[in-house]
Amino acid sequence: MSPQTKSEKDVLRHDLGNELAVVSGFTWLALKSLRQLSEKLEGDAQAELQSIISMVERVKSSAEQGRELLALPVPAPDATEAEIAPTSDKHRILAVDDSLPLLALLSKILVRAGYEIEAFTDPLAALQRFGEMPDAFAAVITDEMMPDMTGAALAEEIRAIRPAIPIILCTGAPETRCNSRNHWAQAAILKPYRPHDLSLMVRGVIAEAEKARRHTFVACESEPLPCDNRANAQ
User: Fold this and answer.
1) Using one digit for the tens of pLDDT, what is the confidence trace for 37-73?
2) Which of 148, 191, 146, 184 has its CA nearest to residue 167?
3) Are strands 92-96 and 116-120 parallel, antiparallel or unpaired?
4) Is-cis flag, bond preceding 192, omega within 30?
5) Which of 13, 96, 146, 184 could bond 142 through an S-S bridge, CB–CB 3.0 to 4.6 Å?
6) Pairing relation of β-strands 139-142 and 92-96?
7) Which pLDDT does position 78 carry in this prediction?
8) What is the pTM of this model?
């Protein structure tokens, strides 16, 4: 059973909900002012302001998605979760999502589940970080639709560096888009998700990767070493 009590989980959900409510409220006020200002502008100035409005709208939408996620009921822990619990050593996760509120929520969920998180809103910066220390990460969690680079493109670049790294697609896209997991992701989870489901998926993916790595190591150790005839010829 997890050392985290139910009351601690409730406090976490309450705090996160309050933080996202504040974000949603401030962005609503900002959008109201920005739209009023946009009506007074013309040409390039109005177009530039509209791009800012679109960005603020995305932040507001992400905050509201996060609040919906937290409103979902928390299921009771089951035997499956205990069977694939993380080891005593903390695993490090690379998390990528252009939505800062949802990225912060994901990070808090996984930190509470016992993981170390390196979070990036910029996929290019995340790729650079992965290239600096590819063996330090146990898994990658990425959104699909992001500016500058999609999740699929990021996964391709990461796999070019470390082919066996497990990758999880975390997206708010329709179910049809999640079919792309067959090509580049070990698993996929749709937003809004339950914290329990996310942490359980991460544990399962890492456990499977570690199991595959152990089997590969044993197979390599069991192969006979090639005979060096040069030594026998002397």
Assistant:
1) 888 888 888 888 888 888 888 788 877 877 777 676 6
2) 184
3) parallel
4) yes
5) 96
6) parallel
7) 47
8) 0.61
